[in-house]
Amino acid sequence: MVLSRSRLIYIGTVLVSGIVLGYVARLNPAWQETAVPPAAWPFAVSLALDLAIGQLATQGKAEPLTMGDRFVAVIGAGLIVTLMIALS
Fold first, then answer.
1. For the chain: N or C, fewer Cβ within 10 A?
2. What is the spatial distance between Cα 38 and Cα 63, in angstroms, rounded to a whole number?
3. pLDDT at 61 over 80
4. What is the pLDDT of residues 24-37, one digit of tens each?
5. 40: CB partners within 8 A, 6+ apart
6. Cβ(50)–Cβ(65) below 8 Å
7. Is 75 exposed, middle or buried (0-12, 13-18, 19+ CB in 10 A)?
8. pLDDT beyond 80 at 42
9. How big is the chain by its Cα radius of gyration, in Å?
10. For residues 26 and 23, what is the distance between their CA atoms, to the nearest angstrom?
11. What span, in angstroms and rounded, lies between the C-alpha atoms of 53 and 26?
């Protein structure tokens, strides 16, 4: 299975955001007690990127994302955040 550039950028960016968000959550333990847990924060990054890529896809400039792309990116980033917090 060959992934297009837009799909690779989406997955990579969301996974990197998981690393950044996990690091930030480790540095600020009080943020771990917020109403929305840090493991759910990658959803916001995913939503913003999904909307941007969706607009490009409607213009024919990018390939649309699949549910598998979204699943791998968001669950992967959530697991990264969870592991970084648990191992701190």
1. N
2. 29
3. yes
4. 999 999 999 999 99
5. 78
6. yes
7. middle
8. yes
9. 14
10. 5
11. 30
